[in-house]
Specification:
The chain has about 140 residues and is an alpha+beta fold. Helix content is about 45%, strand content about 20%. It has two domains: about 10-100, no CATH class; about 105-143, no CATH class. The longest helix is centred in the C-terminal third of the chain and has 16 residues, at about 120-135. The protein is globular and about 50 Å long. About 10% of the residues are buried.
Length: about 140
């Protein structure tokens, strides 16, 4: 059962759905690995547009589409979008949230995996306390 859950997490593309502001973040473990590999030695592009998703009825602002794009690992292939963010909030804070969301993906998934494997309240409590120490440490905020 645990292996199936891990395999499902690796295939998952929708990572976050936000209500305030309305938003969706899309990326997968595979595209993040490509991103982390390519960003070491190449340029990462942030593509943004507001004309793809139409403004809904009664909505005061349009949706914006942001994509992190890298050169495809295969020479001559089209650029590769590795993460997409669709949001109704066109602010620096919103875009910064998107750009930082995948930064600690592996650690976050590890902690989530530990939580799902806990079979007693004591084990779950230990995972939560450990995660709290890691995520609230001064070193974490510097990353």
């Amino acid at each position: 059962m645990v292996a199936e859950e891990e395999a499902e997490a690796e295939r998952r593309v929708i990572q976050n759905i936000g209500l305030h502001p309305k938003s969706v973040m899309l990326y997968s473990l595979k595209t993040l690995n490509i991103f982390f590999d390519r960003c070491k030695e190449d340029i990462v592009y942030l593509d943004a547009t507001g004309s793809i998703v139409r403004k809904g009825k009664g909505q005061t602002s349009p949706f914006y589409v942001y994509e992190l794009v890298v050169r495809h690992p295969t020479k001559g292939s089209s650029p590769l979008p590795v993460a997409t963010y669709i949001t109704s909030d066109h602010t620096t804070a919103s875009v910064s949230h998107f750009l930082g969301a995948s930064k600690h993906y592996h650690l976050t998934m590890h902690v989530f995996g530990l939580m799902t494997r806990a079979s007693t309240l004591k084990e779950l409590d230990e995972v939560v306390i450990s995660a709290n120490m890691v995520f609230s440490s001064s070193q974490w905020s510097k990353c």
